[in-house]
Design brief:
Blueprint lengths: L14 E5 L10 E6 L11 E6 L5 E5 L4 E2 L3 E3 L8 E8 L4 E8 L5 E6 L22
Antiparallel strand pairs: 1-2, 2-3, 3-4, 5-7, 6-7, 7-8, 8-9
Length: about 140
C-alpha cells in the first residue's frame, strides 16, 4: 500500500525524550521534553520544555550548567495541571536533585536533594499506586 508521509517541525528548539501526561485517551495538547537551551550557549540538553501543540507556544525551565533528565509528567486531571518530575545532576556538588515542576508554567514546585549522584538515566515512568496494588 503506497501512501504519503509528511513531516513538520513542532517547535523552535531541539527536543529529546518527549512525553505526555499518561491520563485519558486521545491526543494531548502539551508535550514535555528535554531540550537545548534557548540561548544555544551549551552543547548539552540543559532545559525542560513544554510545547503547546495547539498554539505552538513553548515554555522553558533552564537548569544550565546542571543537567536535567527525562521529564516525567504525573497526571492531575488535565495535561496542563500535571506535575513534571525530573532528576537534575548538580555537577559542582556531585549529587542529584529530584525536581518537581508545575505543568502549567514549568515553575519550580519542589526540590528534593538526594544525598549522592546517581547515573544519568535514559527513561523513566510514572505508575499509579493502584496499578502496583498499593493504596
Amino acid at each position: 500500500m503506497a501512501g504519503t508521509c509528511r513531516t513538520r517541525p513542532l517547535g523552535p528548539r531541539i527536543a529529546e525524550l518527549p512525553r505526555v501526561a499518561p491520563d485519558g485517551d486521545g491526543p494531548r495538547r502539551y508535550i514535555f521534553s528535554l531540550g537545548a537551551p534557548p540561548s544555544g550557549r551549551a552543547p548539552f540538553l540543559t532545559c525542560i520544555q513544554r510545547l503547546d501543540t495547539q498554539t505552538g507556544a513553548d515554555l522553558v525551565q533552564e537548569f544550565h550548567p546542571d543537567l536535567p533528565g527525562e521529564p516525567i509528567p504525573v497526571p492531575r486531571g488535565s495535561d496542563e495541571a500535571a506535575w513534571v518530575l525530573t532528576l537534575v545532576y548538580r555537577a559542582t556538588a556531585r549529587r542529584m536533585d529530584l525536581v518537581m515542576l508545575r505543568g502549567a508554567d514549568l515553575g519550580l514546585q519542589a526540590v528534593l536533594p538526594l544525598p549522592h549522584a546517581t547515573p544519568p538515566g535514559f527513561h523513566g515512568t510514572w505508575v499509579e499506586a493502584a496499578v502496583l496494588g498499593g493504596s
